[in-house]
Amino acid sequence: MGTFESKGAMRRTAPPEASVMNGTEGKYSKLKALQALIGSLFSGKSDAGESLGNEENKTFWKKQKSKIQYSIYKVLLVTLYLVYGCYRYCQYEWNKMKIRMLNIIYNPSNTPQLIRQDVTKLEKIPKRLAAILEMKSESHVGGGSQGLMNDGSEIVCWTVSAGIKHLVLYDYDGVLKKNVQDFRKDIRNKLSKYFGTSHIPKYAVRIPHLNKIYFNDKDSSSTENHKVAIEISLLSNRDGRETIVDLTRTMADLCASKELKLGDITMSLVDKELVHLVGPEPDLLLYFGPCLDLQGFPPWHIRLTELHWEEDNHDVIYSVFIRGLQKYATCKINVGK
Amino acid sequence: MDGTNKMPRCSSISEWIKNTLSRTLKVSNCIPKHVGFVMDGNRRYARKNEMEIKEGHEAGFESMSRVLELCYESGVTTATVFAFSIENFNRSAREVDLLMKLAREKIRQIAEHGEMAQRYGIRIRVIGDLSLLPKNVLKSIEETTELTKANSRGTLNICFPYTGREEIFHSIKKSIEIATDSQTITESMIEQHLYTGELPQLDLLIRTSGVTRLSDFMLWQVSNKGVVIELFDCLWPEFGPMNMAWSLLKFAFRKYFSVKDNKLEEDYDEEDEEQEDSVDNREAYSVKKNM
């Protein structure tokens, strides 16, 4: 009770707004805000009334007040939600329309020449490109693992056409990795659609985690010509934190067997090992979802990666790809400066 | 006379709006627990407004305290700010000195009587590779940390000098040092030994000045599934409490309706507009849910 009275006394000396500014302690803060509100409305009248009341009355009023306050804030919150909701609805429609427009402007229509044309205008292109893919539910159009592979192979075609040599495809659950044989066929089919059956570019699919590499769609035993137009790495959640844990364990074992000193473990050693285990850091990361969620993408590998996604977009579309490249072409990286 | 009267009046009104807003957001119960900030653009701000670089950094500090006040007031318990990157040592010696001096001053100021740390009961922590810092800076950091150690309502992590990779590396090394058997090393162990180990998971990352990179900030934490990344085009000193309230509202709104998604459909028929909106939200979240 003492605190309450002393607060009341303070309010009488200070202007109401100032007491709001000071009012930052615990549950009293809300109370004081309302007190100040009432105070400013009735300018001092309520003060007199309060100080006259006995103690029981005060506790009663205190409870009532905090209840009222709580409801006031709730009402305010609902209003805010409503206003924001309306705004969000408009924004959503606007973004959808923007994406539709972009789809009309940037339409590759399965021709590498058109993509080439878009890309040659750019000042620089990334050496390594990464994309996060999400599997949609089977009931959706283009959902399920089939849809995911279709999306993946589409990106492969764009990347080859753009002249980028390395592509990282990431999906959280590793669906692409599990269906790598089907995926290779899918890539072949898509590439033949783009380049014609007689000119299918050579490609390699790598699964760093299993340390496997597949060339074209034949079985990997053939070691003839390994010059490829594109190398595709398939990553999943497994290659992120878990790989870092694995590396730590290995180093701990080496330390225990005195093969490695603790002092020998340096940033560059860890970096070297992780590049070896997962691959180098991509320059540009594309995300084909409504708002960026990295979903466990290898944390070591996104240090300076440029991120690109289109708000409220749910599909793997060419306009995200090309606009990502355009953004990358204009960005300037200056580490630390 | 009029002018001098008007000014404090104006600021107290905006203060009042700020407080009401933050309390309103607080009752939503959907506020992020841990927010990270990449405070980018102080120097560009100085250049743009033809100030000295020092003034730019000072404006950035002002902006930081205003934003943090709103955060703590609305129920955020932990904030992590990227003040100085290890890479920033590559800047000119003069600027590095200046930043060190400024940091020393400001870290002390935050913990002063009646300032933020005391008002909100916040524990100040300075995280990063502290061995790179000059002695006198280290000393004031220790003093401040000691002074605010007992505060338990919230935490402010000042990353100084810090990089995300160094943090992961530091944790790896620590884990190896502690572990008796390599099999005892797990993901959660590495997570525990990060500088932000015992604190709540990062929920929201805010970056200003229109750059779409993480620039080596909280890599491990941000790559976690479900972390929301908000990018703003304005420079950090221009980023005010209103922008912050906006992103908190956005966060709360999304969280509120995505939680509702998993409940029964009946919850929807409250208000017409809200329903209309939740439909669009349901669409947005169906992708996430169906992963």
Automatic annotation (TrEMBL), chain A:
Cofactor: Mg(2+)
Name under which the protein is recorded: ditrans,polycis-polyprenyl diphosphate synthase [(2E,6E)-farnesyldiphosphate specific]
Pathway: Protein modification; protein glycosylation
Domain of life: Eukaryota
InterPro entries noted in UniProt: Nus1/NgBR, UPP_synth-like_sf
Organism: Zygotorulaspora mrakii
Alphabetically ordered keywords of this record: Endoplasmic reticulum, Magnesium, Membrane, Transferase, Transmembrane, Transmembrane helix
Family: Belongs to the UPP synthase family.
SUPFAM superfamilies with a match to the protein in the record: Undecaprenyl diphosphate synthase (SSF64005)
GO molecular function terms attached to this record: ditrans,polycis-polyprenyl diphosphate synthase [(2E,6E)-farnesyl diphosphate specific] activity
Reaction equation(s) it catalyzes: n isopentenyl diphosphate + (2E,6E)-farnesyl diphosphate = a di-trans,poly-cis-polyprenyl diphosphate + n diphosphate
Main location: endoplasmic reticulum
Membrane-spanning segments: 70-90
EC number of the protein: 2.5.1.87
GO cellular component: dehydrodolichyl diphosphate synthase complex; endoplasmic reticulum membrane
Gene3D superfamilies: Decaprenyl diphosphate synthase-like (3.40.1180.10)
Spans annotated as Disordered: 1-22
UniProtKB/TrEMBL annotation, chain B:
Biased composition range(s): Basic and acidic residues: 279-291
Biological process terms in GO annotation: polyprenol biosynthetic process
Enzyme kind, highest EC tier: transferase
Protein known as: Alkyl transferase
Region (Disordered): 266-291
Keyword terms of this UniProt record: Magnesium, Transferase
GO molecular function list: ditrans,polycis-polyprenyl diphosphate synthase [(2E,6E)-farnesyl diphosphate specific] activity
Entry superkingdom: Eukaryota
TM segment ranges: none
PROSITE patterns, alphabetized: UPP_SYNTHASE (PS01066)
Pfam families per the UniProt record, alphabetical: Prenyltransf
EC annotation from Swiss-Prot or TrEMBL: 2.5.1.-
Record's compositionally biased regions (Acidic residues): 266-278
PANTHER family named among the record's database cross-references: DEHYDRODOLICHYL DIPHOSPHATE SYNTHASE COMPLEX SUBUNIT DHDDS, DEHYDRODOLICHYL DIPHOSPHATE SYNTHASE FAMILY MEMBER
InterPro entries: UPP_synth-like (IPR001441), UPP_synth-like_CS (IPR018520), UPP_synth-like_sf (IPR036424)
